[in-house]
Hints:
- The strands form 2 sheets. An 8-stranded mixed sheet has the order 3-9-10-1-7-6-4-5, with no helix packed on it. A two-stranded parallel sheet has the order 2-8.
- It contains no helices and 10 strands.
- Strand 6 (about 55-60) and strand 7 form a beta hairpin.
- It is mainly beta.
Amino acid sequence: MATxxxxxxxxxxxxxxxxxxxxxxxxxDVVLKFVTAPDLMLPAYTIxxxxxxAIDCICLGATNYYSTHSQNYAIAEDCTAVLTLAGQxxxxxISP
Length: 96
């Protein structure tokens, strides 16, 4: 299991899912903003279809959250990613 932290500090790091199912457990609607694909709104407490487009940032309310990982991160195929809030950080917990 891996955890990627996101903050409101802009970075150029992306997260690249591969047939990844997302669960929005933040309690609010989020928008996944992709590098080359149209944005995807994921309502609170819902599950997405499989996603395979690089994520530039995640919008929660009026705030854009960016990956704090040291490099671009590729999620292994067919994993699940759960989005949660922890204080001022958005967390993406990835499990097989």
